Amino acid sequence: MEKSRVVLIPCESYDEETVYHAMKAGIKVLGGIGRFVKPEEKILVKPNFLSVADKDSAIVTHPSVIKGMLRILNEEGYVDVCCGDSAGHGSSRAAARRLGIDESSSFSAKLADMNEEAKVHFEQGKTCKDFVFTKEIVEADAIINLCKMKTHALERITGAVKNVYGYVCGMNKAAGHTKFPNDTIFARMLCDIHAYKKPVLSIMDGIAAMEGNGPASGRPVSMKVLLFSADPVALDTVFCYLVDLDPELVPTCSQGEVLGIGTDREENIDIIIAHPDTQDSGFNKESITRSELLDKYGSRQFDVPRKKARLTFLKGFSDVMTRFARRPAIRKDQCIKCGICVNHCPVPGKAVDFVNGKDKPPVYDYKKCIRCYCCQEMCPQHAIYVRGKS
Ligand code: SF4
Ligand code: SF4
Fold first, then answer.
1. N or C: which end of the chain has fewer CB within 10 A?
2. pLDDT for 113-154, tens place per residue?
3. Backbone angles phi, psi at 101, to 5 degrees
4. Structural element, H or E, at residue 45
5. Beta strand pairing status for 81-83 and 327-330?
6. How far apart are CA 7 and CA 14, in angstroms?
7. Is the pTM here over 0.90, yes or no?
């Protein structure tokens, strides 16, 4: 069996030229952009636009990474390129604009709206057969996945596998959490999305990652790496190696392996380090082991839950275990009573609501709460944290 190749390019800063050369080198080590997309194809470059956020927040894919990809496609002669993501809160265009990306700086790529629903029935889906994606996802021949290296309250990490949840249009994302109510079932649904339309190439922005209360309220932490792979599971597995986390404890990795989306097995992953030069005349590359990777490029202190996951596929057990799962909670002094958490709570009758009036912070009903953490992801004030042991 051919190994999945994951390329790591050390990258010290978000300087646009530096990132562009690093991305060219990473793609070149994988065989060049022509290995992944054909000239006549309709290409969607899909960053992580969780919300309309600043470039230094580490919430979203950094604009230098997005522009680097668009520039490479433009220089290589690809003409049918668009860029966007169905943002969790706010629009794709607004998220791009906040990052300083508009039509004048997108290297001829169109900025996608990502707000028109397209219903998809996917008979081969094992956990989910019916999706509401955006029109651009359905129409794309090839998707390039520009994911962000972050922690995630439900799945521990969010990277290449999880980033495809942005295929789902708008508020349908929140509703998906009621149908797939625990980390394992949710990960299996994500694998169905990959089976429907797997990104041809995934690139992880880990120059500044997010640790702690991710994916929106954690701390930016400098990891100084870009990762490249055609295998999203292997890519996330290498992210796990970098932060000393067992990938078997990450449902998107373990289920990705089980369902054949990619591999999380160390013996099946070839990790390559390449050091680009800025003249594009070449680069040095070498294979590296998991332990060398952690020692040279990783962080054992990276703040991510490392305790064992509770795995279940049975709805009854899932409901019981939800009661013991970590709870979201509000830091009242940070809350501005905007109600975004209430709007995004997918539970009928709301598990977080303004029970004491709209001039007081919302209150949780933990008996109703399914621990999807949408409220924590969407709070613009980072006022919601997740408490308790994993
Ligand atoms: S989203 Fe955050 S700031 Fe807004 S009401 Fe909820 S906790 Fe308060
Ligand atoms: S309160 Fe928050 S974690 Fe609980 S179900 Fe609603 S959105 Fe999900």
1. N
2. 999 999 999 999 999 999 999 999 999 999 999 999 999 999
3. -110, 120
4. strand 43-47
5. unpaired
6. 18
7. yes
